[in-house]
């Protein structure tokens, strides 16, 4: 598997673990979206997989890293499917599962903003493009989930979400460009994203949104 | 044409016919979605094409089988376009066209769940991945149609739809893995999907959906 | 950069300028969509980029021209990002910005219907496929913008939009097939699209939409 090997050689081992944690977290968020739509267990499985592997799939297609990563390594599908099945039978237990998920999701995007940036750099693309690619990697799985589920996407919720991913990726890419040690760059990028997203969650922060003053019939 | 040749050599001739039947059926379903939105004839043509070739296009992009299949064989576009034009001028005739479509669609997904699985195996991917790929091939054309038309996607209608595709693909892949004759595998996979979807349609079957008991503010 | 070089060698210089004008125009339309959703500045930037480069990205993925065009030439992202930032601070100034945008957008699609067709031909695909590809190139950025913003897509607004793109592309491809000079073909295709879209805008033209007479429970 191309991707896995690259990850193994280019980012700290902790990120291998975080990669799988991120996959599980996004799979759970997809399954929870399925639970809100009262879908059957196959629906849970499909939504969990789409959410968990959607961002990386779009990234691989845009970079030409085909077949995309999960085609050659079926563990992604197995892991996401198990997560979906567990959610199907346990989601009703916790009343606070949403808060838990938000924090797990924050760790997930913090992981993927670094992993996505690293994979993009490995593919030989420019730093500016790598930042956009990292944002896409981290957010598109959730976007596809929201669009297919007919929900307002995270993009529209005025939360500091894309911004946290953007800053985390920018820190990582910036440190790499400055030839700073890759491990340090990864940890700083990860923490920058997690800190911003975490503070935003804890204190309900948001950036000033644009206030429309003109005609709205567009 | 890569795909066609592979299909010719690896699946029974009947599936070549069913392939085109599936294209026509999905084109018609796209055109009917356009009719509900009262679009003009170009809208019919675009929606018919997106629905008919969308699933296979996503599959080819994920597998790296580019240019995607319809780029090298314009007959797909011609056939879908003719179907769209026919629907534009005749859709008002039948009051029961929806029932007819549901059954034709059932045959379409039964075909594509086998074809999609076979093309995935030909591309050298693992059995587990091939099943997911087959589900995507069969369902994504309709999903894109529903999202662009602003409709609730089939995913959200709690019908036994993805499940039928899933089981049909799993039968086909399973039989192939067991080295059972490809013709038999194709027919069993096809019939399994058609039977499940058909019974679900006839008796309004559905799997037990998840019943949410916790907070819904996610 | 593959794409840029090809454009330089195969279409008139004026289209290089129009290409960037089109990128700016679509970036602005994405930023305006963000303004309606009262997003923060990062949201403006992401929406502007998705709209400006979305259509070409889908085209490149389908043709296998990967990494997609903006990965190797970060100027696209820079330009779209600057446009987004300018819109964020100035969008409230103009009350008539929507009318302005519609006309700029008309020039944008007129450009991209020719550029998309030319890039498709350069990739060696058939004329019929090239027309569909050009329609996708010109319209998918806006479609993704509308879907992510939760708006009715341009497809559903019964305007002469896809039709104008379709005819402009068909003129260009037709002239090329007839071995007419590429510059003339480009100008005719461009003007055909602009004329049709412009007249439709000015006189609120629309083609007769399909009037449903049958059951609507599909």
Short synopsis of the structure:
With about 220 residues, chain A is an all-alpha fold. The first copy, chain A, has nine helices and no strands.
Overview of the structural elements:
- The structure is a homotrimer of 218-residue chains.
- The first copy, chain A, is an all-alpha fold and 218 residues long.
- Chain A has one domain (2-89, 97-203).
- The first copy, chain A, has helices spanning 2-10, 13-36, 41-63, 69-72, 75-90, 97-122, 127-148, 162-177, 182-203.
- The longest helix of chain A has 26 residues, at 97-122.
- Chain A starts with a helix and ends in a 15-residue tail after the last helix.
- Chains in contact: A-B, A-C, B-C.
- Chain A binds chain B through residues 32-44, 46-47, 49, 57, 60-61, 64, 66-68, 70-72, 74, 77-78, 88, 91-92, 94-95, 97-98, 101, 147-150, and chain B through 61-64, 66, 123, 125-129, 132-133, 135, 143, 147, 152-153, 155-156, 158, 160, 162-163, 166, 206-218.
Helix content of chain A: over 70%
Which oligomerization state do the chains in this entry correspond to?
A: homotrimer
Q: What is the count of structural domains of chain A?
A: 1
Number of helices of chain A: 9
Q: Which range does the strand content of chain A fall in? A: under 5%
- What does the radius of gyration of chain A come to? 17 Å
Query: What is the structural class of chain A?
Result: mainly alpha
Order of helices and strands of chain A: HHHHHHHHH
Major sheet details of chain A = none
Beta-strand segment tally of chain A:
0
Mean pLDDT of chain A: 82
Alpha-carbon distance between the termini of chain A? Answer: 46 Å
Low-confidence stretches of chain A: 1-8, 214-218
How does the overall form of chain A come out from the CA principal axes?
globular
Largest interface: A-B, 41 and 38 residues
